């Protein structure tokens, strides 16, 4: 089968439901990077994101027969990934901060390397994105980085389409304010 683009994701899911390991490999190779980046933006830890990717695709293997085709396969994957990532974030926030972890927290003052990164517009944008609320950051991530439609985002996040539109409006407004405060005006290259 190889990574033949003529096989749609829905075809691959049907084959996975029948136990086709090669179809699972093809689906994984198509989507693992995108899903990993999405999860990484939520959890903020490469190790946790890598673990969750394994869990996401294990769920796909186990639940492929439950895929109803009401959304794109990529939307279904991101919805599974989002649920797992948010669960991991909740578990982490419930853990007590011990003395060793507290000592490992870095001093927030800028060192020379950070000062140079702040001059980089890409770094400024990433920093501004991190300053958004998790709800706004998630909407921006899905719409602009994963190129999902408002309808697909509503399906992934589990909120009405109008709420997605409202969050997008306020997220872009807040991002514009943050960029302006950071010295980045319109005319972004």
Automatic annotation (TrEMBL):
Domain named RNA polymerase sigma factor 70 region 4 type: residues = 125-175
Alphabetized UniProt keyword annotations? Sigma factor, Transcription, Transcription regulation
A Pfam family found in this protein is Sigma70_r4_2
Which domain of life does the protein's organism represent?
Bacteria
Decide whether keyword Transmembrane is in the record: no
Q: Where is the RNA polymerase sigma-70 region domain?
A: 27-93
Q: Which Gene3D superfamilies match?
A: 1.10.1740.10, Winged helix-like DNA-binding domain superfamily/Winged helix DNA-binding domain
Q: Which InterPro entries match?
A: RNA_pol_sigma-70-like (IPR039425), RNA_pol_sigma-70_dom (IPR014284), RNA_pol_sigma70_r2 (IPR007627), RNA_pol_sigma70_r4_t2 (IPR013249), RNA_pol_sigma_r2 (IPR013325), RNA_pol_sigma_r3/r4-like (IPR013324), WH-like_DNA-bd_sf (IPR036388)
| Family, similarity comment | Belongs to the sigma-70 factor family. ECF subfamily.
Q: What is this protein called?
A: Sigma-70 family RNA polymerase sigma factor
């Amino acid at each position: 089968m190889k990574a033949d683009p003529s096989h749609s994701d829905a075809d691959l899911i049907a084959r996975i439901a029948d136990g086709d390991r090669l179809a699972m490999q093809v689906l994984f190779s198509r989507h693992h990077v995108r899903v990993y980046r999405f999860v990484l933006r939520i959890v903020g830890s490469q190790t946790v994101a890598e673990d969750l990717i394994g869990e996401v695709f294990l769920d796909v293997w186990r639940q492929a027969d439950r895929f109803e085709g009401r959304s794109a396969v990529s939307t279904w994957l991101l919805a599974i990934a989002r649920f797992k990532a948010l669960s991991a974030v909740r578990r982490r926030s419930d853990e007590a901060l011990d003395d060793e972890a507290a000592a490992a927290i870095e001093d927030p003052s800028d060192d020379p390397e950070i000062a140079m990164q702040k001059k980089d517009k890409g770094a400024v944008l990433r920093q501004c994105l991190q300053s958004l609320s998790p709800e706004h950051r998630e909407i921006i991530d899905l719409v602009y980085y994963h190129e999902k439609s408002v309808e697909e985002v509503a399906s992934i996040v589990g909120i009405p389409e109008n709420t997605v539109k409202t969050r997008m409006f306020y997220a872009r407004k807040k991002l514009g304010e943050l960029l302006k405060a950071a010295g980045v005006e319109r005319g972004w290259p």
